[in-house]
Amino acid sequence: MAGMEISHTSAKDMFKKCSPELAFRFIGNQGRTIATITNLSELISTLSEIPATITQFHVFRETTKDIFEPHLLDGPVVRSDLALWINYVLGDIELSRRIYDLGKTEKNAEKLRRKLITLLKERERELIDFIRSS
């Protein structure tokens, strides 16, 4: 199965709820949390309900701050809060890479959201197939 850089246990964990303190929060324009996500399934179902511009903000943005490696900054850097969360909380580096790459290539907010939902559903199917075959 192409791009399956994840263990059987980690694949199963993608569908379990993470602890509330590790949940991903989509933040709206006024700084309020508009959605809280604890696993892959919730992410997929929530994306169609929140504004595309909010999705875009969390998938791809340029910033001058990098909370993980501030010593590496030499000008603006690209951040994907969602890709970081998927990598560090859900443990799926392959999906994280795919989201980061999508954010770099798609600049239209609505198209980005549609492509992201498709990407997440594809990964969900890959993970389910991987779990069943293991």
Question: How does this structure look, described?
Answer:
The protein is mainly alpha-helical and 134 residues long. It has one domain (8-133). It is 52% helix and 11% strand. It is built from six helices and four strands; from the N terminus they run αββααββααα. The strands form two sheets. It has a two-stranded antiparallel ribbon. Strands 3-4 form a two-stranded antiparallel ribbon. A hairpin with a 5-residue loop joins strand 1 and strand 2 (33-37). The longest helix has 25 residues, at 109-133. It is globular and about 45 Å long.
Give the key terms.
single chain; 134 residues
Secondary structure layout plus pairing:
Layout: H1 8-13, E1 24-27, E2 33-37, H2 40-47, H3 52-59, E3 61-63, E4 77-79, H4 81-90, H5 93-105, H6 109-133
Antiparallel strand pairs: 1-2, 3-4
Helix pairs in contact: 2-6, 3-6, 4-5, 5-6
The biggest sheet, with number of strands, parallel, antiparallel or mixed sense and barrel status, is: 2 strands, antiparallel
Percent of residues in β-strands = 5-15%
Spell the H/E element sequence.
HEEHHEEHHH
Tell how many strands the DSSP assignment holds.
4
Rounded to an integer in angstroms, the radius of gyration calculated over CA atoms is 15 Å
Major sheet strand order = 1-2
The helix-and-strand class reads mainly alpha
Number of domains as seen in the coordinates: 1
Estimated helix fraction: 40-55%
Average pLDDT figure: 85
Sequence stretches where pLDDT stays below 50 over 5 or more residues = none
By DSSP (H or I, 4+ residues per run), the number of helices equals 6
